[in-house]
Amino acid sequence: MMLNYRNTQLHYTIKGIGNPIVLLHGFLESSNIWNFFIPSLSEKRQVICIDLPGHGKSGNLEEVHTMELMAGAVHHVLTHLEIEKATLVGHSMGGYVSLAFSEKFPIMTSGLALINSSPDEDSEERKATRDRAASLVKRNKTAFVNMAISNLLSQENSLKFRSEIEELKKEALTFSTEGIVAALKGMKIRTNKLEVLKSLESQKFIVAGKDDPIMDYNRIENVAKTCNCKLISLNDGHLSYIENRLALQNFMYFID
Ligand code: MLT
Predict the structure, then answer these.
(1) C-alpha closest to that of 242 among 152, 143, 174
(2) Residues near 193 by Cβ (< 8 Å), separated by ≥ 6?
(3) What's the Cα-to-Cα distance from 39 to each of 33, 46, 58, 137, 213, rounded to whole Å?
(4) Taking the CB of residue 206, how many other CB atoms lie within 10 A of it?
(5) Ligand 1, atom 9: nearest CA belongs to which residue?
(6) pLDDT digit string, tens, across residues 56-106
């Protein structure tokens, strides 16, 4: 479905009835990453998947897509659908957006699950990487997309899941340079949401990959403890929805 929003369009899918769950993809991804999970999940509840601004079939809003701006787009879709409360599940950047959403709209948040994600802000080193990434995207989008996606899992799993990774890359290459850069800039300036996560009173989960190359597993373990989140530890890297598909399906199915 397409929905008008601030001179552009937002794309989302909706399936099933009852107790809404919103699935938010990460950077360079789209709502397609959830395709495997929708059939079983939508048997017991309503499943809404949204393409975040600049990703999938959704348009761009501004030069910088802050996590709050993206959360505003999510809010627009939910308001349009007359959904008053939902559980948010966010993969990586989708987790940053879920946290921004729960900060802005706490009474609409009935649960939160961060998948391969974290409430921490970027380190100074990572901020510098974002700048380099933005200039590479502008010069050579293909090189950037190939490199960025390959960096998310081990060489072994890149081979094991070669066709899934190729699909991801192929789709990311259809995203506009402006949309990719806007997300990089937004992630770079995102603020720390540890207190938001800590004070959120709904059910909270963190799914973490023990070998995630871009999220420090020990830090995530600590965050889960500090913020009273149930931790689900999986093997492998940053792409649990590919690398640990059945475990993730099982986890999502049993969220209330
Ligand atoms: C993502 O997978 O959404 C991003 O790689 C997260 C990040 O770069 O911080």
Answers:
(1) 152
(2) 96, 99, 100, 103, 119
(3) 13, 11, 23, 35, 30
(4) 25
(5) 93
(6) 999 999 999 999 999 999 999 999 999 999 999 999 999 999 999 999 999
Q: Which tokens in the block code for residue 75?
A: 């809010």
Ligand 1: nearest atom to the Cα of 94: 3
Rounded to a whole number, what is the largest CA-CA distance in the chain? 46
Task: Compute the distance from residue 18 Cα to the ligand 1 centre, in Å.
Answer: 30
Q: Is 92 in the pocket of ligand 1 (CB under 6 A)?
A: yes
The pLDDT tens digits for 144-169 are 999 999 999 999 999 999 999 999 99
Q: What is the C-alpha separation between 63 and 183, in angstroms, rounded?
A: 9
